[in-house]
Each structure stands twice: as C-alpha cells, then as structure tokens.
C-alpha cells in the first residue's frame, strides 16, 4: 500500500490514490490537474522523507469543484451591559481527487 503526506497551504494531509480531500481555495477550474508538494512517502513499509528523494516525488490531483466547510457560530456576550453579538462563518474549500503518487 502506497500513501503520501502532502502539504496544502498550512496543513498536511495523508492521501492515497482515489482519496477526495479539501484544500484551500484557488483559481482552479473544474478538471484541472495540480501537483501538491510531498512531505513523506510510504511504500509497503519503506518510508521516504529525505529532501533529495522527495524532489522527484509528486502527487497529482484533479480538481472536482468548490465546497464549503461546516457552519461555525461565533457569539459574544458581556454581562450587565446588554451587549450581544452573533456572527456566522463558513470556510470555502476546493475539492480535489488524488489521481497518482509517483516516486
């Protein structure tokens, strides 16, 4: 079994071929192919994490479309002053499907 740890933005995610992950949004059209930087590759128990070998490694992904994360509600309240504030947030993401992991 081959899997890789890739960096997307400020996060790292463990991926295998066929996984659908969410990365930070960008100006990518549906169907575009991207290459994500590799941090580590594991191939049948053999771990590759040195910079020289990872320079050749790549993870190819295909853009599936835009998506949104869960709704987060932010509430602020101050006692005895009548101050209440409610705000919502929903993070935007780009869904991608891992198509190839090469060493």
Set down the secondary structure blueprint.
Elements: E1 2-8, E2 11-15, E3 20-23, E4 33-36, E5 38-43, E6 46-48, H1 51-54, E7 58-78, E8 83-102
Antiparallel strand pairs: 1-2, 1-5, 3-8, 4-7, 5-6, 7-8
Task: List the defining traits of the structure above.
single chain, 103 residues, mainly beta, four-stranded antiparallel sheet, 4% helix, Ribosomal_bL21_CS, ribonucleoprotein, bL21-like, rRNA-binding, rRNA binding
Explain the overall architecture:
With 103 residues, the protein is mainly β. The protein has one domain (2-102). The chain is built from one helix and eight strands, in the order E-E-E-E-E-E-H-E-E. It has one helix spanning 51-54; strands at 2-8, 11-15, 20-23, 33-36, 38-43, 46-48, 58-78, 83-102. The strands form two sheets. Strands 2-1-5-6 form a four-stranded antiparallel beta sheet, with no helix packed on it. A hairpin with a 2-residue loop joins strand 1 and strand 2 (11-15). The longest helix has 4 residues, at 51-54. It is elongated.
């Amino acid at each position: 079994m081959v899997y890789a740890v890739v960096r997307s933005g400020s996060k790292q995610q463990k991926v295998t071929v066929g996984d659908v992950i969410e990365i930070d949004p960008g100006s990518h059209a549906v169907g575009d192919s991207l290459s994500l930087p590799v941090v580590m590759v594991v191939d049948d128990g053999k771990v590759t994490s040195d910079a020289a070998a990872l320079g050749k490694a790549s993870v190819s992904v295909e853009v599936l479309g835009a998506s949104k994360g869960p709704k987060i509600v932010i509430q602020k309240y101050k006692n005895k002053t009548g101050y209440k504030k409610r705000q919502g947030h929903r993070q935007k993401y780009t869904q991608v499907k891992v198509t190839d992991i090469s060493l």
